[in-house]
Amino acid sequence: MIETLVTTEAEELLYQLTALLEQELRCQPKASGLRLIESAHDNGLRMTARLRDFEVKDLLSLTQFFGFHTETFSLAVNFLDRFLSKMKVQPKHLGCVGLSCFYLAVKASEEERNVPLATDLIRISQYRFTVSDMMRMEKIILEKLCWKVKATTAFQFLQLYHSLIHENLSCERRKYLNFERLETQLKACHCRIMFSKAKPSVLALSIMALEIEEQKLLELTEALEFLQLHSKVYIKIQGRKEEKCMQVPTQRKRGRSIGILVSFVTLLGFCLFGFGFGLVSWIFFPFVLGSLVSYLL
């Protein structure tokens, strides 16, 4: 058992993690709807993955402009993907849908004094629709989302995983597991629709595993394995329809599961971080991590 787990603080974090794991599938996009968007041709009449990704990048720019938290951005992406996976949205309406999702996330996550006026948000976004248009769209979105605005996000999992793992590092090595860097990687993933098909826990744990591999924090292997088992990450068996849960009683299966993750992360880490985490890595990170996430789904 890893050392962190014997502390009261860690027990509380694990309790929170378990609660999130139980809730994460309740407010996630429909995979079938996301696949339809991915397969759509860019003819100007249907929603496509490219249009969705551009809209999310605009929301990221707004998040940075206003200085909002990453959780707000992550929640806005959740709202947008859930709505797009349920409704057929014409490209000309995407701006209103995206900004309405963003405004709902801001009002749900940020302090009231930091919430901008709708008129200012529209003006800064340079859209032509009115406040009334956005208010009507907000109501439609809330109805389609069944008024569930407290969704579980990958950012919440990333926070918990980082807090649990961070305590297993010595003081001088904690700087190598930088949370801001992990946030940056998560934001990059949100800008690609493929990652919205992954469970938030899988996406967050994959990002954490890649970073641990890149920073060569080998002392965290046991902690990472424990979280992988605790989170019940599933591996899809090639050629079979059923999925095998990683939380299995035998040591042989347990070792095989973590071995698959570690070896795969090693390969992806070599492909990605050989470039250094600059502009090139920002571009290539989603493509590389996508292979890992699809493998773990």
TrEMBL record:
Keywords: Cyclin, Membrane, Transmembrane, Transmembrane helix. Residues 57-143 form the Cyclin-like domain. SUPFAM superfamilies: Cyclin-like. The chain crosses the membrane at residues 260-285. InterPro entries: Cyclin (IPR039361), Cyclin-like_dom (IPR013763), Cyclin-like_sf (IPR036915), Cyclin_N (IPR006671). Pfam families: Cyclin_N. It comes from the Eukaryota. Belongs to the cyclin family. This is Cyclin G1.
